[in-house]
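worker-03 picked up job from queue 'complexes'. Input manifest follows; two sequence lines, order preserved.
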Amino acid sequence: DAGVIQSPRHEVTEMGQEVTLRCKPISGHNSLFWYRQTMMRGLELLIYFNNNVPIDDSGMPEDRFSAKMPNASFSTLKIQPSEPRDSAVYFCASSLEAGMLYEQYFGPGTRLTVT
Amino acid sequence: SQKIEQNSEALNIQEGKTATLTCNYTNYSPAYLQWYRQDPGRGPVFLLLIRENEKEKRKERLKVTFDTTLKQSLFHITASQPADSATYLCALPPHSGNTPLVFGKGTRLSVIA
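worker-03 finished. Artifact:
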């Protein structure tokens, strides 16, 4: 298996533009997670899905952020409009189930820079 | 509210020595704890899971302990090698809510040859 696939790997955009990050989880995994990582705040969960249904989106910073999972093999995280404070590395991860005992498999991340 | 603390400063050790990293938590008693390794420019990779009823768990040169009285987990790498240099994160279930895991900020380990 190729592991969790994310695209793009790097994104540089100007403030106010729309940004879409993409993720393909490991086949057969039922749970998908979106994280954001910064030096100041570490790795923060933004939202997670179980069987394509959003379960917990309490980490989504504000209405500018939205996430979708239209099917078991694809998810997007959208930021509209983007702001410089959104600059971070965004990780997608998947696991067999969302239960506490399941390890998470992370993608390589998307480094987002908003100027 | 819950708090997860890992050594905020980098840990530098000599090759061949044992590295010990600390994960402290407050205000609740998690049923398990996970450790991940993260290399620069890459996503975290799962290493070990330890349950509250397991005092110690080993995997090759890695050893994790879980002291529910001290509210602390220790992560040991014996016979450390330069290839062990990375950031190590602990992760626990949250005190409340639906999220499976909350991550600490990690400790950066450098093993010097």
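worker-03 released lock.
DSSP finds no helices and eleven strands in chain B.
Chain B has a mean pLDDT of 92.
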